[in-house]
Structures are given as C-alpha cells and as structure tokens.
Give the backbone structure.
Amino acid sequence: MEAYCVYVGADGTSKIGRVTLPMMAKIIGEDGASTWTNVQTGRTWGVTGGEGHLPTDDFGPWHTAGNPMMSIVLQGAWEVQAGSGERRVLELGSLTIFLDDTGPGHRSRTVSIEPSIVIGVGLDEKSALDFKTQLGII
C-alpha cells in the first residue's frame, strides 16, 4: 500500500512524494495464539479537526510536522500544500506521512462542508528512516 509523504528535499523545500507502507502479517500458532510480524512502533497519538466549509483559499499558517507523523482522515477532507507548491486533497481514509521537520514546512485547510477529523500518530525514528530511505533523501 502506498501513501503520500510530505518531506524536506535537498533544497530545504518541502515536497510531496509517495512511500510504500510496511505490511504486517498475522501468524497463528499450533495452539491457536496469534502473533504479528513487521509491526511498526508508534510513539504518540491524538485527534484534531477543522471546521467544515466550502473550499476557499484560507490555508492555515506554514508549519513543520515537528516529529515524524502519520495522519489518517477519519471524517471530511482537507488539503495539504508543500513548499514546492504541490497540493493534495486528503479524503476519508487517506493516510499521509509527514517528515518535514525543518524549513517552512507545509500548510493545510479543510475542503469539505463537514468538519474534517484526523488522527495523528507519532512515528519512531526507525520508521522515519525507512521512509526517508525510500525517498532517497538519506
């Protein structure tokens, strides 16, 4: 499965790329107990939202992710813009990785009539390094 990824390029500008997400596998033992392989570690999580409205050009301020994050849209839709000018609309179920921890970062806005609700999950450094390797930035 692929996801969008907002990252900082060699020129210091945030860009939007694509990364492949690691897939877990469930193993059921002879005793019927389940274990999972290739499980990634999350550090923190939280839910946030934006008021619903008709799309206008009212982006929020430029900001960085701060820490490596994964966001999943739970309701509504929002748009993210990277410093390169690239934009992506993120709808219900969209998963995006944010690795832009330096520079001006990105900005976003709600683009649905209903409020957008997003859960953010902090990623560990190993996951962040794996994604950066995929993007060819380390």
The mean pLDDT is 92. Residues 2-135 form a domain with the Jelly Rolls fold (CATH 2.60.120.10). The two ends are 22 Å apart (CA to CA). The longest helix spans residues 125-135.
